[in-house]
Design goal:
Helix 3 packs across helix 4. With 250 residues, the chain is α+β, with helices and mostly antiparallel strands. The strands form three sheets. A three-stranded antiparallel sheet has the order 5-6-7, with no helix packed on it. The protein has a two-stranded antiparallel ribbon with strand order 1-2. The radius of gyration is 28 Å and the shape is extended.
């Protein structure tokens, strides 16, 4: 897989066309181009080399601009975005050591502790700004200061023969007549085969946020234990407004 990725990058580098000029986000026009500028990238399949054209300005001292980096959506760091995403997901559910072990087990890539910390810090750099941002403008009807909550659940429901789909009913009748049955260690599983359909219920509603403190989660004294807020308001308790719902199928 690493060799396939490297071959693809080499083919893109050979087919990259030189542009007459390139203007960067800094407004500087770059008219000179040099081929063969190589950078390394550590992906989930291994480390590869990326060769591309570098554009520079003859008059202004600014950094080189690589159009291929933008086309490939390459990060400025050594590690690819899918690899960084895997690191962040693993680190969010455990320690950095566990994250390093999980990433090495699933991708074969070894990442040092300092690099893990840098990846996680960059991923969390905009968290405060994200929560400080105003509500989504796509939902202007939502009350100010309230939360939009989405809930979804699904379960299997035993169906009568008339409620089964045609293919499922035919398979169930064939099993009932002694036809071939799928291998199973339990007779109950064979009897339930072809008898269920999934029922899904979704709900979308607005609710007032409930701010919790440390005393609500880990009370230290008896007074804090008596006054702590145990649960958030449930839908339909007078503090939430349902928007829509999907009833289960027959």
């Amino acid at each position: 897989m690493r060799q396939i990725m490297q071959d693809q990058l080499d083919a893109r580098a050979a087919a990259e066309r030189r542009r007459r000029e390139v203007t960067g986000a800094d407004g500087v026009v770059r008219t000179r181009a040099e081929r063969g500028h190589v950078r390394l990238l550590t992906a989930t399949v291994g480390r590869v080399e990326i060769s591309r054209i570098a554009y520079r300005s003859p008059a202004v001292k600014v950094g080189n601009l690589h159009v291929a980096d933008a086309e490939l959506a390459l990060p400025a760091q050594l590690y690819s975005r899918p690899l960084q995403r895997a690191v962040v997901h693993e680190a969010a559910s455990g320690s950095l050591r566990q994250a390093a072990q999980a990433v090495e087990r699933t991708t074969g890539q070894r990442i040092g502790t300092r690099q893990l910390m840098e990846i996680c810090a960059r991923a969390a750099a905009d968290i405060n700004a994200f929560y400080a941002a105003p509500p989504d403008a796509a939902a202007p009807h939502a009350p100010a200061g309230e939360l939009l909550v989405l809930s979804c659940d699904a379960t299997g429901v035993n169906m009568i023969p008339a409620g089964l789909r045609e293919a499922t009913r035919a398979a169930a009748e064939a099993q009932a007549q002694g036809g071939p049955q799928p291998p199973s260690a339990q007779l109950a599983d064979r009897e339930r085969g072809g008898r269920r359909r999934m029922a899904t219920v979704t709900a979308v509603y607005d609710t007032a946020p409930v701010v919790r403190t440390a005393a609500d989660i880990l009370p230290r004294t008896a007074a804090e234990r008596e006054t702590r807020r145990r649960e958030a308001p449930a839908p339909g308790s007078g503090r939430s407004t349902p928007r829509c719902g999907t009833p289960p199928p027959r």
